[in-house]
């Protein structure tokens, strides 16, 4: 799945398959400007920062069990969001500090460091990477991902795929080759 935020005409947090199909709103009320988003892949939670409401909130992948982690002035101007173990990590764009927020007890907020021009944050740790099983976009014997001549996108599950073409090409009737 692909998770993303949108604060155009109607602010929302959404999800879809990697090929763009099955687009679903998971949060579409009491939300104004969702900017940063992070996933808890193990427990299947979506965390986001709303910079208009000065809040960090969470829902499960279906948009249920929503609650506010932290709200208020101390978290104004946040950009970027990452989750690792018991904490959320974010950047305060006002003073360029990295904040650590306990995701179970939002009152536990610590400033860890300052970085010049930081706008995003990521946590790279082996335990946060899910094991990869064989999938529909694996390279075939001819070197083509999923048998697609240009682009292979996973679909509704790891066994299904959709072929797409680069700009200027159209997908052939076989659903795999681009012309």
Automatic annotation (TrEMBL):
Matches recorded under SMART domains: LY (SM00135)
GO CC, alphabetical: plasma membrane
Pfam families named in the record: FXa_inhibition (PF14670), Ldl_recept_b (PF00058)
Domain of life: Eukaryota
Keywords: Lipoprotein, Receptor
GO biological process, one term: canonical Wnt signaling pathway
GO molecular function, a single term: Wnt-protein binding
InterPro entries from the UniProt entry: 6-blade_b-propeller_TolB-like, Cueball_EGF_LRP_Nidogen, LDLR_classB_rpt
Ranges of the LDL-receptor class B repeats in the UniProt entry: 1-43, 44-87
Cross-referenced PANTHER family: EGF-LIKE DOMAIN-CONTAINING PROTEIN (PTHR46513:SF33), VITELLOGENIN RECEPTOR-LIKE PROTEIN-RELATED-RELATED (PTHR46513)
Protein name: Low-density lipoprotein receptor-related protein 1B
Protein species of origin: Phoenicopterus ruber ruber
